[in-house]
């Protein structure tokens, strides 16, 4: 059993969202990644969890790893060529409960990535508003 991520003491809403998601789904993501890519897949999820534990801000590298994880569990052809790869996922029964669970995990991870992107947009808008307010004060 994996240890859960502690509640972050971060003011970064993206980091907090990623921590909450991995706290809830981390073990299932490890299992799914291991089914699809073996120990390397599980190690990639553990790396993400380790990154989140040791930082208070969502780092660019961690974002990239989250995207790569989503590509892996959604069998994105950009991640690898499913026709030529000798991946473990080829041995999964498409009608199995594992495949259904992996699809649900892919959907929830996609939702997290969308949330992180929306938070980026909100922070950009806030930064722009602060810059405009500062310019208005200087002009007055």
Poorly predicted runs of 5 or more residues:
none
> Can you count the helices?
4
What structural class do you assign from the helix and strand content?
mainly alpha
Secondary-structure element series:
HHHH
Largest sheet at a glance? Answer: none
Helical fraction: over 70%
Structure description:
There is one protein chain. This protein is mainly alpha-helical. It has helices spanning 13-37, 39-54, 60-73, 97-139. The chain starts with 12 loop residues before the first helix and ends with a helix. The model has no long low-confidence stretch (mean pLDDT 80).
Task: Give the SSE map.
Elements: H1 13-37, H2 39-54, H3 60-73, H4 97-139
Helix pairs in contact: 1-2, 1-4, 2-3, 3-4
Q: What attributes characterize this protein structure?
A:
mainly alpha; 4 helices; 140 residues
Give a quick precis of the structure:
This protein is an all-alpha fold and 140 residues long. It contains four helices and no strands.
